[in-house]
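Continuing from the previous page...

OK, I double-checked the sequence for Flagellar protein FliS against my notes and this is the correct one:
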Amino acid sequence: MRQSDPIQLYTSNQLQASAPVLRLIKLYQIGVLACKNQDQIRVIKVLWLLNKSLNQDKWPELATNLSRIYSHLHACVNEGKYDYVEKTLTKLLDQWQNLNKV
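Thanks. Re-ran it with the corrected sequence; updated structure tokens here:
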């Protein structure tokens, strides 16, 4: 049986213990870095996690719009358009960071 990477386990525990907005910010940061590294698997995983975190009950319009954006970005990753995906994730990251300051 393979043991977990201690750094990955620590990061995962830190992420789970964070406030919801801070978790989103961290996911966006991971996504931006993954785009810079052209790490297709990691970018797709981040987009999947972001999509999974959407709350259709509390903010249906926002959730629908973000889901469409994430789906579009997923398609762009499959086409190798990492620069575009990185720019879009960075814009979204900036918005969440600004919201977190309020």
